Amino acid sequence: MGHTATSFPGRTDDLAAAGEDAIQLARGLVRRDSTNHGHGQGDERAAAEYAAEALGDAGLTPRILESAPRRANVVARVPGTDPTAPALLVHGHLDVVPADAADWTVPPFAGEIADCPVTGAPALWGRGSVDMKDSIAMVTAVVRHWARNGLRPRRDIVLAFVADEEDSAAYGADYLVREHPELFEGCTTAIGEGGGESIHARTTSGKPIRLYPVGAAERGSAWLTLRARGTAGHGSRPPGDNAVGALAEAIARIDRHEWPLHLTPVTRASIDAIAAALEVERVPGDTGTAEAMAALVEKLGTAAPLIGPTTRNSAAPTMLSAGYKVNVVPGEATAGVDGRVLPGGEEQFATTMNELTGDRVTWEYAHGSPPVAAPVDSPAFAALREALLVHDPDAHVVPMCMSGGTDAKVFARLGIDCYGFSPLAQPEGLDYTGLLHGVDERVPLEGLRFGVRVLDTLLRA
């Protein structure tokens, strides 16, 4: 069963309307198809106009900035009462990954509300309901709540709802940072996707607890193009320098490679916090070798996915291309590799790729974004923890390094400390990570109501 509203103390009647507003805003956003097909093919304009209109109703003057036709971004600033206080950036992306309606229980862009088959609780179904139109709706509902009740935050809040996060960010966050950095003047801290949702776990004694991971670091993206060249010829008389064979050997080496442990300060802090919350007994050297680390991660149960992918770099072959006819040996073969790089692991990654590709294969970055990290002992992280504890006093707030990436990598170029924080109460048994980019994506309505309460506390602090 999912948690009821009374399961999370701190609910206030004056925020109840904001919770319902968030639900309706999320439905409206889901119904505006903003699929990002990659390769520059996307259309966020309708979703951007809807978000801008909702912010305009709160008395703000949002700007819609197009980086290309239909590739729309929305930026608005909520003025605070203390002009000397550093501003906070709240960012989220309007685009979503594709969805094939034939695979879904409900139409992916209908914004339907129906019971979750896992928990039985009502949920909003649709592409983007979790990633991440729900977060944009919650933030917008909070701002609209302030306008209705004559409330203002202490510091300026800059809202940036952007395009193209699901591809390269070129039409979204990257465009804004390159062309309109003045919009983020005064921002020293940011929150975005990648943390704040509850994860149900059990201690070693069987006690149920709730973990709330907060993103404080991200692995960098290293999307590579590999290329092998050889002598083109007839398939019946193959040359000795076949490009396909050389590329296949390199790809096989990359696929088999076991990357060494590389524990960043954020990952070490995450391991310590999660193990303490789960009452896992630590032994000397339990993070010293791959075998010991694997044993420790196994003890973390449902929290293991927060640690496992972030203990090393990775490189996954994902694309192959060569030739145009079966009896013709091509002169060139190419491949795509999705690499992910931990903070401080950039040199190791490049050196390893040189070794694995060998003399016959070259590689280059098709797209790259650096890893980022923010301090976990900062007042900003403490404020995130406190906002959750206000509404769930039993929360165990833990830092984490994200295995994937977000627009935090782009906004960090402005010197902003970026955290993943999109608070959401998840009922036990719901596979949150499995819903990201998945079929039948859905978000529990009570989770949205909880997120509104937490965000109101945080953003007015």
Give short descriptive properties of this protein:
461 residues
Biggest sheet features: 6 strands, mixed
Shape: globular
Strand order of the largest sheet: 3-4-8-5-9-20
* Tally of DSSP β-strands: 21
Uncertain residue segments: 1-13
What would you call the structural class?
alpha+beta
Cα-atom radius of gyration:
23 Å
Number of distinct helices: 12
Strand proportion, as a percent range, falls in 25-35%
Helix content: 25-40%
The overall pLDDT average reads 95
What is the rounded distance between the termini?
Answer: 32 Å
Question: What do you see in this structure?
Answer:
- This protein has helices at 13-30, 45-56, 133-149, 173-179, 243-256, 265-277, 290-298, 346-357, 379-391, 408-411, 432-435, 445-459, and strands at residues 36-38, 41-42, 63-68, 71-78, 87-93, 113-115, 122-125, 157-162, 187-192, 199-202, 208-218, 220-229, 233-234, 314-322, 328-329, 332-341, 361-369, 372-373, 395-402, 417-420, 442-444.
- With 461 residues, it is of the alpha+beta class.
- A six-stranded mixed β-sheet has the order 3-4-8-5-9-20, sandwiched between helices. Strands 10, 11, 18 and 19 form a four-stranded mixed β-sheet that branches.
